[in-house]
Amino acid sequence: MAFSGGVILGDLDDFLSPAQDCVLPLLQAADGGTAKVDGADVAKVALSRVPVEQPLVQRPNLIKPKKSSADPKAEIGQVSLSDCLACSGCVTSAETVLLQQQSGEEFLKRASEAQLTIVSISAEARASLALHCDASPLLTLRRVAEVLRRIGVAYVLESSAAEAIALLEGKAEFVRRYREANRAADGRTDGQAAMPLLTSHCPGWTCYAEKVVDPVVLPHLGALKSPQQVQGRLAKSCLLDAHNRRRLHHWWRLQSPLFAAERSCWLPAAGRGDIKAVGLPGLLKPSQVYHVSVQPCFDRKIESARPHSLLPGADDAKEVDTVLTAAELLDIVRGAAGGAVPEVSAGTAPADVLEAVSPVALNGEILTDLLLGDLCAGRTQPLLCAVGQNAGNGGFIEHIFKEAATELFGVQLNSQSLEFRTVLNQDMKEVQLLDSGSTQRVLLKFTAAHGFRNIQNIVRRITKPSTDPNRDCGHFVEIMACPGGCLNGGGQVSVPKAARGQQRRTHLQELEDILIKGDGTAVVPPAEHPLILPLYEYMVTAAQEITQHDILRRGGLVLPDSSASAKLEDLIGCTGVRQWLAADWK
What we know:
Blueprint: H1 24-30, E1 36-37, E2 40-41, E3 66-67, E4 75-76, H2 93-100, H3 104-113, E5 116-121, H4 123-133, H5 137-151, E6 155-158, H6 160-185, E7 197-198, H7 203-211, H8 227-255, H9 263-266, E8 289-295, H10 299-304, E9 322-325, H11 326-336, H12 350-356, E10 367-368, E11 383-385, H13 396-409, E12 421-423, E13 425-434, E14 442-450, H14 452-463, H15 469-472, E15 476-480, H16 504-517, E16 521-523, H17 532-553, H18 568-571, H19 575-580
Parallel strand pairs: 5-6, 5-8, 6-10, 7-15, 8-9, 11-16, 14-15
Antiparallel strand pairs: 1-2, 3-4, 12-13, 13-14
Helix pairs in contact: 4-5, 4-16, 6-8, 6-13, 11-12
């Protein structure tokens, strides 16, 4: 099985292998520097396969330092293994290690070995799979879940709850920054909130911002993890707690004489041994959980490998261990034909493989949510979408604009369609909220900028000293690296040639219609999602436990927990949740 159709690695011949040090110190020394490796001079470091003769090397442009307009003398250059996929320079054999960790082969291997394997499928990837298979998104998801179950996956999750949390926290952050900026403009505070707020849920954009863009832009980025990482953090904490409770409950029923009639059901899972020999099951740790996320683009792989995408106090367990694209998931389905799916022969097309299997039950344990609940219980439909329009990029501009208009100015827009005006090109649009008075003053201005040419336009407007970013860019900018946004991600199922070019917009509209109006899907505002309140209570409690641990370590006094009696509006945007879901842009 190939890694992907988007990344092809040929024969590699470079200085770096997984057991060697980076060649960058050698290149620095060639420039006359005094680079050190682990405190030793480079001249004293012996690297295998490096000839004794000193090679005449010219320093390549591997790392592009960037200067700050605030401090012309300052120069910043950072690189780590997790950055390599976005590097515009060489591809070395060390990067292939990272690529292999994000491949279909690695998924099949680890899924068969892990004590608990979880797969989360994003809404954009689900829509792409459904359109390719010519089936409803719910039926497609149930069939994919059955194939994954046969491979060794314990739970298949939809990600609407994490997406709802990201929208609620994004709105709270925007309102907070908007009010702080206005207070600073009126001279009521000394601080100045960075406006406009730039979305940070696209890893292609955030990596570009960190590596290339002027550092003065970074404070404008939203300080929140993307829905993928929110889902990963909750899957390895909240869901894991529910899984451990379920295991204990199953063990108790197996041991209790009150449920003797059910022993024949539980004994196979216990190895058909003596009941008394079955000991108390140990609680799984986050490091023992293998979490996979199915996404519409390859940049999500970079995001999952970032240093700040780790669970706190969990032995450096990643929130997301492997990211697969929708196209790669189809490759895995194709590979299951004749093996895990014996109903069809090897080489059968993925759509036919999925059609051959029986979909999992909606009230079973495989297809579930972050609380291991029933997708039919407490929901109008099993699949939920947070917004009724502009949902293809997470719904940020749609949700935050309408909610901010209500909270800041008392204008109700929930039942209205936003009227976007095209600016420069089809991938750059804006929407405004005007004062109803005679002045027609602009109260809110939001911009959608998709694709790197539009990203560069936004960056220039923010960094140019003579411009007013709020006037030129607006108060909020939804930035996406891919033209057309997430639904047009490079990891989506390939579009037939007949649908390319001028028909791209039609294809993207079909995907958005599936996302919002597909069979088994209902539009439910984020605050009304059935999992939101319990998940917020969990996040606040988890954040308090981390804080209390630090306080106790310093010999302080722990305050009682008050999250159980708090209302949802008091929990959204609170300090604990912001800290627990914070991103670190450098």
